[in-house]
Amino acid sequence: MFSEHGESTEDARRTDHERLPTGSLATDGEERPSWESEWCRLAYWELARRVGRQHGVRVRAVDVFGGDAAPGRHGLCLDALHARNDAPQPEQVRKTRAKIGLGVTLSLEGDGVWLYNRSQAPVFVSSPALDAAAARALLVWRVPPAHCLCVFDPGAPPAPAALALPHLGPVDPRSVRISFAKGWGPKYSRRDVTACPCWLEVLLAPPS
């Protein structure tokens, strides 16, 4: 997977073994009862505020990118979300969005869901698939530019049942969180993903 573009899973590095609670910040009250043929939904966040609605994904590979730095690409364009949202942006959000560029590609393959980092800055990932042995304390992995990582393996041990965390409320274990350019965890000033300027939540479809 993606071997022609860059290094594979073993080259993605954990960020000093930061450990974080599992789950999802989910929907902001938005209910979508049927998954139909979607294999995931994407929600883009800036700090603790979601920007735009969920983006359902039915194609096997989807791009998430900053803007017109990638003419002709299809997927979730973060600049287009802001064109429909005139809320003021903090300076740290503006600076981080400027680094997203070509962003990431998420691809549904036979052996799982893969992320490929096309941007010029690292991305940071927390996923139930990355640390099955530590079900309630997932690692955050650093994925450098031009590297890829399997962010969900359907053959891995099942994720724990949904939890309720005091600072997040109900959470979803079938959730992958991807922060652009900025990491988070106990050794960062950003202790939680909601402190990251620009990040993406991937909500995986429930098992059939």
From TrEMBL:
This is Mothers against decapentaplegic-like 6. Residues 39-208 form the MH2 domain. It comes from the Eukaryota. GO terms for cellular component: heteromeric SMAD protein complex. GO terms for molecular function: I-SMAD binding; transcription regulator inhibitor activity. PANTHER family: MOTHERS AGAINST DECAPENTAPLEGIC HOMOLOG, SMAD. Signal peptide: none annotated. Residues 1-20 have a biased composition (Basic and acidic residues). Keywords: Transcription, Transcription regulation. GO terms for biological process: anatomical structure morphogenesis; cell differentiation; post-embryonic development; regulation of developmental process; regulation of multicellular organismal process; regulation of transcription by RNA polymerase II; SMAD protein signal transduction. Residues 1-31 are annotated as: Disordered. Gene3D superfamilies: 2.60.200.10.
